[in-house]
Amino acid sequence: DAMVIQNPRYQVTQFGKPVTLSCSQTLNHNVMYWYQQKSSQAPKLLFHYYDKDFNNEADTPDNFQSRRPNTSFCFLDIRSPGLGDAAMYLCATRSFLQVSGETQYFGPGTRLLVL
Amino acid sequence: LAKTTQPISMDSYEGQEVNITCSHNNIATNDYITWYQQFPSQGPRFIIQGYKTKVTNEVASLFIPADRKSSTLSLPRVSLSDTAVYYCLVAPSGSARQLTFGSGTQLTVLP
Question: Percentage of chain A surpassing pLDDT 70?
Fold first, then answer.
C-alpha cells in the first residue's frame, strides 16, 4: 500500500549529539512536512518542502534542519539535541494534484528521547 | 491564518452520536476545513474534509453553516475505539503553508 514511512519509530540520542530522522513516501506527493509534537500538545509545524523549495516556519529553531534529496525522501536533522527536543516527530505529505489538495497523509512518527 | 477553537475534551457513551464543533471566525474564502483523528503514539489520520454545507463519508459527517465560521464533526454511534484526539484544521486551497493544528478535542468514549 502507498504510505508514509518513518524510521526509526523510536530514537534515543545523547544531549548534544546530532541525530537524523528519516521519512519516505510512496505517494509521489510533491509536498512534505515535518511536525514536532510534545506530550498532550497539538502537532507544531517546523517546515515543509514544496518540491525542492524549502519553507521554514518563523519560530523553528536553527538547531533543526531538513534535507529532501528526491521526491520520496525527506530528513530531519537536529544538530545539537537538547532535553527540550524530546518529542514525537511527524512527517506528512500532500499533493496539489488532488481536486481539493488539502489532505495530508501522516507517517506513524518517530519518538525521540534525549538523554 | 484562520485560528480554530475546539472544546478541550468531551465524554460520551458507546452507541451515542457525538458532535464536536470547531470555531473558525476568520476563515477565508479559499479555506477548506479538515478533521483529523489521532490515537496515542500514532500520526494523525484524515477523517473528513469540506468547504460548505454537508459532507458525509463512511466514518463521519461534517456540517458547515452558510457563514462557514464554524464546523461540526459528527460521529454516529461511537465505540470505545473512537477514543482519540480530534483536530480541526483550516487551511487555504492551493497553498502548502499555514497548515497549523488547533489544540484538539480529547474524546473519551465510556462503556
Answer: 92
